[in-house]
Amino acid sequence: MTESLPLDGHSLTLDQFLAVVRGRCAVALVPEAWERIRAARASVERIVRSDRAVYGVTTGFGRLADVRIPGNAVETLQQNLIRSHASGSGPALPEEIVRGMMLLRLQAFAQGRSGVRPETCDALLAALNRGLYPFVPEQGSVGASGDLAPLAHLALALLGEGELIDGSGTRRPAGELLAENGLPALTLGAKEGVSLINGTSLMATYLALGVADAARLLEADLLAVAMSWDALRGSVEPLDDRVGEARNLPEQRVIASRLLTLLGGSRLASLPGASPAQDPYTLRAAPQVLAAVELAIGFARRIAEGELNAVTDNPLVFPGDETRSGGNFHGQPLALALDTLALGVQYLAGFSERRVAGLLNPATNRGLPAFLASEPGLTSGYMIGQYLQAALVAENNVLVHPASSISLPTSADQEDFNSQGAYAGAKLRRILDNSERVVAVEWIVAGQALETRRPLPGGSGSEAALRALRSFVPPLAADRPLAPDLDRLVSALRDGSLLARAMRSA
Description:
By secondary structure, the chain is mostly helical. It has two domains: 5-199, Fumarase C, Chain B, domain 1 (Orthogonal Bundle), CATH 1.10.275.10; 210-284 and 331-505, Fumarase/aspartase (Central domain) (Fumarase C, Chain A, domain 2, Up-down Bundle), CATH 1.20.200. The chain is 55% helix and 5% strand. Helix 15 (383-399) runs antiparallel to helix 16 (421-452), helix 16 (421-452) packs across helix 17 (460-470) and helix 17 (460-470) crosses helix 19. The protein starts with a strand and ends with a helix. The model has no long low-confidence stretch (mean pLDDT 95).
């Protein structure tokens, strides 16, 4: 994308967020945003001159909020805040996460409630648009008072004191990389340190990316369900809209309708009344269970879209040189959404593993070879694919415990209930990674099973998915390692090419 995305502080969409964070679209603040930023900055400077006691401007932080800071030390206060709070640990956050944090700080500043100088916004814009991003360790945020430690590492690099990563992925001392790019190191003014780190930017980035990834995964899963449905010769009777109407759950009816469309024209799926046997829950109750996944994504999306256009630092600056101290930095709504989304994704992964087990088990797969092996006994087919799924789902079962159910107080109990939203986000990314692999295994196994049913064809959606699959993974004629096939398919799922090919082939 060549044109800059205009940021006004109020109208950032999830698609626009993804264009910047993953597509490296450039950004620019609209003129009205610059006006608001300058007006808020003038208020902060008047507050400092008036020597009023304002939290984070002329006082200390946290439990030290009752310590007054003289006017000649307010800039030192902000520098010290960044240095002391850059105390994170663990592996580096990936580029897309850090870019999301940078973008959301800019988006919040554009509303003119933070009181930062235009120069600080310029520094963020320049780094973001040139593909430079700070080294930020994953661990350190407790999800309240903002993502303090991660954002402090972000700010430290802008001061020329931390580390920056360039477009090639090389990690360098920030001062060196800024100088090479002709960018000055920042010196913070009053309130700027607290404005930079007192926000939910890490949690909100986790959530926005998680919503996008979970929605894509559900799309891929529906195609996997259709292939498995055909391969297991399931009945379409549970997809009758009258069943959904009786439940009074709109999401269930939508899922059932989409599956029925994907199975359209199938010679494998049985018509209503064709068989007295009832299919396993992973087919028969797919509309109900995947409706729960859709509900989780919808809830998380609503929270994410609000947070993309929120101001979450503290205190906030209002016209008339007024400030109000509050708790917008608290991540509890985000933590709840992250934990809820993790549960929904785990439902999807657990359901997928059970369908694959049914496809491979000769007692349940309705006439398919055991493990889809070419010569069962001599060859093992996809036996270990289900082992892998079981391992990943088991790991998810541990990770899915809600992080937001536990709080440890900080800052001498001044900050006495924390959301743990940042850890909820880190866990969600791992759960999504595992679940993408689980669903990819189902694509591979279900596609093989569908071909084994030849010459009878599956539904239009199943056949389109199979054609897309075969552009990445060949049929299994003899035992071979699953890992390379799986890696290719997971990569295609993540970059969207798998779904795009399935849609083109439909």
